[in-house]
Structures are given as structure tokens and as C-alpha cells.
Write a structure and sequence with these properties.
43% of the residues lie in helices and 3% in strands. The protein has helices at 14-21, 24-36, 41-46, 61-73, 99-107, 121-125; strands at residues 80-81, 85-86. The longest helix is centred in the first third of the chain and has 13 residues, at 24-36. The N and C termini lie far apart (65 Å). The protein has six helices and two strands; from the N terminus they run H-H-H-H-E-E-H-H. The protein has a two-stranded antiparallel ribbon with strand order 1-2. With 126 residues, it is mainly α.
Length: 126
Amino acid sequence: MPIPSFTPYPARHPIMSSSFKRPSGLIAAMAVAMAFTAPGAFADSAGVTLSQGDTFTEKDGAALYANVCAACHLDKGQGAVGAGHYPALAKNKNLETGGYPVSLVLHGQNGMPPVGQMMSDDQVAA
């Protein structure tokens, strides 16, 4: 039994119509974007090694912060508000006791994901 061919319905909107008739431009743009955002595309040029997979490879606290924490808490720990609330770490009295930050790293809280499973004990302590 032959497989019936697919005949798309004609698009009624001029923009949609041209998009469906010429998807090659969209595909080319997506291919370029994917090439530039491939894992390691920016890391190699900046001399930075980023963790791959399900464990962090950074050895010291500065590298861990720069590659893991700074994305939300920003480079100087000032925190941010926008798409979410990212508390400031700098001058945060809650972080002065050892148990609280370790618990946050291991178990997460509110919007912060638990990342302890991706770190060694030495990395958590850093």
C-alpha cells in the first residue's frame, strides 16, 4: 500500500506563506546559530575550560564561582532581579555561618537548584 504524500494547506498570511515557501533561509540561520553556540565554542577562544556532563571539573572556588554561580549571582556577587530574584552574596550575613551556604549548595532553595551532586566535597568546601 503506497504512503499518501503530504500536501500542506496553503498559508493565508503573507509572512507565513513566504516562510513556508522558503525555509532554507531559516534553516541556514539556525545552522549558523548552532555552530556558534556549540559546547566549547566560546570556551576555547577565551582560554576557559567549562564543565561538561553531570559533574563540575573546576578545582578552586574562584573558577567554580565564575563558571557556575556568577551566571545568576553576577561576577561580584551583587545579585540581580529580573526574570527571577538572584540574592546578593556579597555582604550577605546569612552566608557567614558554614552550614547555611553548604546546605544551599547541596540541597538548593527556592529558585536555586541543588548542585551538590555535581561537586566533590572539596568543591563544596571551596
